[in-house]
């Protein structure tokens, strides 16, 4: 028993399944793939009207394919293969891009070819100079029935091209030979430049025997016809980018997005912006624009560009020698000095919420579809808290910003209707407030985050006290062209403060002098019906800069400080001097100092206690002429204290983790995943 057991240990078993041919332990061999696509994909993109500044960073870091930058911030490529980039800035006289100076018209076919069966396809265009025939295999290999080895093989076919009358132009035998487990395409160009009898018929015929076994993989497909029209297209005034890359780099045509510095526009000659976006002004602007257009993110000058450009904006169409051939806006129709003040306010630095500073308003956006001019322009104006209006045959932009009062109104210079008995039928000033339901307490501001591929984000802004008083009431705000979280927060806070504090509207009628007011201007209302400490009336003839003769008599309280306002200038009143009857029975007011300009007869004046109720300031939002020659003015209450609240309270919660920069995330080529379990 022991001998048998010992001998048993020497028995060696190999293979599995017993019996079979000699050499059963041999593993089948497989050749390496040697067919790799040599086809290149080409994409020509119209990026923008031109000329533009160019890429925001290096070209490869500014181009995103399938949402991945071509190159990360370490200057390492994120894709295999060579991707060629060619760029034109959009000059009027620019050259065409080499390799893209032809028109390609592709006809998909996608038919399996069977031995000796012709597959004819007719082109859809007659005027072609070249035809590219694309054929391919889903795989190409054969398996040896004896040993299982996998090796390459070949498939042969014929391409025949005839003209419209059936005359042969090309007749060529071709083959694909090699080995691949994956799909593989070949493109074959055929010149037909001197043939003008299209359309053309392209036939592909398989000449190799069709496969009849799973061990032979050589199915042939007629994939497509590409018609080539060789023309030179320069695309003047259009910024272009041409991409060429191996077709094997992507399984399909990738999505393409580009981060750009956009259209160069006119900017004031005394404005300078460096590469970091820092802006400075030198001296007083003389109304002349820089002779060299610049890339600019100031929304005021983007607004001006859209108004005056005739290619994509509202500018008047002209031909040689400036002859106008269509309607449009001329540069002289625009109050560019008002825009200059708006632009300077946009460029002022405010806290960015991260311990630094940034410009108050910038615009980084694109307009990629048609729209009503008035709506598009107002969308741009909204970026700087502005509005657009037409006055005196011109175009004026206004902005919600700190300003000075340009006119003062009281019962003395507005129209008040009375009946035959002198009783007031219609008060001088009609006030209307907003309801509690209209008060908003939370703003949800949508903006585009440049650190997350410019995806739309929401910035939440709240007024906690208002939520306690009125409840949670949401206001949606779209920050068009906003790529700054700080700017989005300021916009939301401005919308809330304006909604919650500027909740009163006043309407009144004035005689012809109302025509000299403009929407957006600040006015002051001193309504005696709301404050008994206000005296108002008209200046009489004979007044001087240091002595006013007025039409209103009033006994003023002694030892009380007063101030007098005429036009937009306010001065104190000399102590002990009141409105007294003179020998000519005309009341007089003696200001503490002389007015800058002698008041004219008929000018309105207002006198009030300095420590009394403050006059209320309003911003004009509408002016309407009536048939009787009067003007109806509509204005909203103006909260002059809101600007510091809006600009100086930007901050972000440092405890919230930020999304990692997408520009430094590399793609994975090859690697090993190790899974550990415990």
Task: Briefly say what this structure is.
This protein is 11% helix and 35% strand. It is mainly beta and 678 residues long.
Fill in the keyword field for this structure:
5 domains; disordered N terminus; 6-stranded mixed beta sheet; elongated; 4-stranded antiparallel beta sheet; 678 residues; Immunoglobulin-like; mainly beta
Provide an overview of this structure:
This protein is mainly beta and 678 residues long. The chain has five domains: 30-101 and 232-262, no CATH class; 133-223, Immunoglobulin-like; 266-399, no CATH class; 405-411 and 506-642, no CATH class; 435-502. Helix content is 11%, strand content 35%. It has eight helices and 44 strands. The strands form 14 sheets. A six-stranded mixed sheet has the order 27-35-43-44-34-30, with no helix packed on it. Strands 6-16-8-13 form a four-stranded antiparallel sheet, with no helix packed on it. It has a four-stranded antiparallel sheet with strand order 7-14-11-12, with no helix packed on it. A hairpin with a 2-residue loop joins strand 25 and strand 26. Helix 3 (299-308) runs antiparallel to helix 4 and helix 3 runs antiparallel to helix 5 (373-383). The model is unreliable at 1-23 and 655-678 (pLDDT under 50).
Which helices and strands, and how do they pair?
Layout: H1 2-8, E1 40-49, E2 52-55, H2 59-62, E3 63-65, E4 68-69, E5 84-88, E6 103-113, E7 118-122, E8 130-137, E9 141-143, E10 150-151, E11 153-162, E12 168-178, E13 184-191, E14 201-206, E15 216-217, E16 220-229, E17 238-246, E18 256-258, E19 260-265, E20 271-273, E21 279-281, E22 294-295, H3 299-308, H4 336-347, E23 349-351, E24 357-359, H5 373-383, E25 386-391, E26 394-399, E27 405-409, E28 417-418, E29 424-426, E30 430-433, E31 442-449, E32 455-462, H6 464-470, E33 474-478, H7 485-501, E34 504-510, E35 522-525, E36 534-538, E37 548-549, E38 562-566, E39 569-572, E40 580-581, E41 587-589, E42 604-609, E43 616-625, E44 631-637, H8 642-647
Helix pairs in contact: 3-4, 3-5
């Amino acid at each position: 028993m022991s001998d048998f057991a010992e001998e048993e240990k020497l028995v060696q078993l190999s293979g599995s399944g017993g019996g079979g041919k000699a050499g059963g332990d041999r593993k089948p061999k497989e050749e390496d793939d040697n067919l790799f696509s040599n086809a290149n994909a080409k994409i020509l993109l119209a990026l923008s009207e031109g000329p533009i500044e160019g890429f925001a960073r290096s070209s490869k870091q500014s181009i995103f394919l399938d949402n991945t930058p071509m190159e990360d911030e370490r200057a390492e490529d994120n894709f295999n293969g060579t991707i060629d980039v060619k760029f034109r800035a959009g000059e009027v006289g620019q050259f065409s891009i080499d390799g893209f100076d032809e028109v390609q018209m592709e006809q998909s076919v996608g038919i399996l070819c069977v031995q000796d069966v012709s597959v004819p396809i007719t082109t859809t265009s007659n005027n072609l100079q070249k035809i590219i025939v694309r054929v391919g295999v889903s795989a190409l290999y054969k398996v040896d029935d004896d040993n299982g080895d996998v090796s390459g093989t070949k498939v042969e076919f014929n391409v025949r091209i005839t003209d419209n009358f059936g005359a042969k132009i090309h007749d060529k035998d071709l083959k694909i030979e090699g080995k691949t487990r994956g799909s593989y395409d070949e493109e074959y160009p055929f010149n037909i430049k001197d043939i003008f009898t299209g359309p053309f018929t392209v036939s592909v015929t398989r000449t190799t025997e069709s496969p009849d076994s799973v061990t032979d993989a050589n199915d042939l497909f007629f994939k497509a016809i590409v018609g080539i029209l060789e023309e030179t297209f320069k695309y003047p005034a259009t910024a272009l980018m041409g991409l060429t890359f191996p077709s094997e780099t992507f399984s399909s045509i990738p999505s393409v997005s580009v981060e750009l510095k956009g259209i160069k526009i006119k900017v004031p000659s005394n404005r300078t912006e460096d590469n970091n976006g820092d802006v400075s002004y030198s001296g007083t602007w003389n109304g002349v624009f820089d002779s060299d257009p610049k890339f600019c993110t100031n929304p005021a000058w983007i607004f001006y560009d859209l108004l005056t450009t005739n290619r994509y904006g509202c500018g008047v169409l002209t031909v040689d020698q400036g002859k106008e051939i269509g309607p449009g806006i001329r540069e002289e129709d625009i109050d560019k000095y008002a825009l200059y003040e708006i632009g300077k306010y946009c460029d002022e630095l405010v806290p960015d919420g991260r311990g630094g500073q940034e410009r108050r308003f910038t615009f980084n956006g694109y307009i990629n579809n048609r729209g009503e001019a008035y709506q598009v322009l107002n969308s741009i104006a909204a970026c700087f808290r502005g509005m657009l209006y037409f006055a005196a045959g011109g175009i004026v932009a206004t902005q919600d910003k700190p300003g000075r009062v340009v006119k003062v109104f009281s019962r003395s210079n507005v129209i008040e209707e009375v009946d035959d008995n002198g009783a007031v039928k219609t008060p001088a000033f009609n006030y209307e407030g907003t309801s509690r339901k209209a008060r908003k307490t939370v703003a949800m501001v949508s903006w585009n985050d440049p650190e997350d591929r410019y995806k739309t984000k929401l910035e939440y802004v709240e007024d906690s006290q208002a939520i306690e008083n009125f409840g949670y009431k949401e206001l949606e705000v779209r920050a068009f062209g906003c790529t700054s979280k700080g700017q989005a927060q300021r916009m939301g806070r401005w919308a809330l403060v304006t909604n919650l504090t500027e909740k009163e509207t006043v309407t009144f009628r004035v005689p012809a002098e109302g025509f000299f007011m403009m929407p957006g201007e600040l006015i002051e209302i001193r309504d005696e019906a709301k404050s008994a400490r206000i005296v108002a009336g008209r200046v009489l003839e004979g007044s001087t800069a240091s002595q006013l003769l007025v039409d209103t008599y009033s006994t003023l309280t002694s030892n009380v400080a007063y101030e007098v306002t005429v036009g937009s200038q306010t001065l104190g009143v000399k102590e002990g001097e009141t409105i007294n009857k003179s020998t000519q029975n005309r009341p007089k007011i003696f200001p503490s100092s002389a007015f800058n300009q002698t008041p004219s007869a008929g000018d309105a004046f207002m006198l009030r206690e300095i420590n009394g109720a403050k006059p209320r300031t309003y911003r004009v939002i509408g002016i309407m002429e009536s048939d009787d020659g009067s003007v109806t003015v509509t204005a909203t209450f103006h909260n002059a204290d809101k600007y510091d609240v809006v600009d100086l309270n930007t901050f972000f919660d440092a405890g919230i983790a930020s999304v990692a920069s997408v520009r430094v995330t590399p793609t994975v080529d090859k690697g090993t995943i190790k899974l550990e379990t415990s």
